[in-house]
Q: What sequence folds into this?
């Protein structure tokens, strides 16, 4: 079983749509959780951290369910510029940040 | 600030050759990391450093070496390149104060070993 599993997609959605990505992780001792965004042939960039209480940043909402070892990302009112690969990332380190990356979910937003 | 810079951007090596991938950050971050990303795969940690003079192995260190003589620089050395080392290599850094959650990545080096 992969340590971090994501549906690779692609998810094809029209502009303005709402889309949700899910991710599961296998290590229950994981400390913290993130969504990174990676554009084609570019480096990953932090989109948002994921907190147990859930958190929102503009059109983006992240949720964490520790009991089910499940993380989600919801994007509302999709823009063309949201087209990218979204990486689910889990920190398994204590003190030192040891990130384990999912393979990513590709999103394509069309006009 | 330039952030994290990596050189070269692209490189083709022959089997058995060696090279050094350069990584420099100007944010005074203590933590630095090297990852590789194979097509369709998640990033894998090769080596990391918690400060100048201190390095340790990550998940996939075989075939690589690192050094950290300054806070700014964290070069990755490939000895005896093999086709299995064909990948995109990303260097990252992270602060020890402030936004400690965030790793900042360089633009990557695309390496092909033939």
A:
């Amino acid at each position: 079983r992969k340590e971090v599993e994501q549906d690779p997609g692609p998810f094809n959605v029209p502009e303005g749509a709402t889309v949700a990505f899910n991710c599961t992780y296998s290590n229950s001792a994981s400390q913290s959780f993130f969504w990174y965004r990676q554009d084609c042939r570019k480096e990953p960039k932090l989109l948002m951290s994921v907190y147990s209480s859930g958190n929102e940043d503009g059109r983006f909402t992240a949720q964490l369910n520790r009991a089910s070892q499940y993380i989600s990302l919801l994007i509302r009112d999709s823009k063309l510029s949201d087209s990218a690969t979204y990486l689910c990332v889990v920190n398994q380190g204590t003190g030192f940040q040891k990130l384990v990356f999912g393979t990513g979910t590709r999103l394509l937003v069309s006009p | 600030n330039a952030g994290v810079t990596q050189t070269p951007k692209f490189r083709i090596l022959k089997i058995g050759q060696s090279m050094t991938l350069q990584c420099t950050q100007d944010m005074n971050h203590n933590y630095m990391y090297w990852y590789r990303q194979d097509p369709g795969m998640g990033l894998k940690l090769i080596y990391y450093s918690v400060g100048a003079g201190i390095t340790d192995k990550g998940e996939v260190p075989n075939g690589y070496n690192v050094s950290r003589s300054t806070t700014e620089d964290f070069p990755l050395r490939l000895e005896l390149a093999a086709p299995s080392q064909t990948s995109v290599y990303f260097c990252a850094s992270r602060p020890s104060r402030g936004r400690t959650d965030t790793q900042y990545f360089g633009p990557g080096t695309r390496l092909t070993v033939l």
Observations:
- The CA atoms of residues 48 and 82 of chain B lie 22 Å apart.
- Chain B is about 0% helix and 50% strand.
- Chain B has a mean pLDDT of 94.
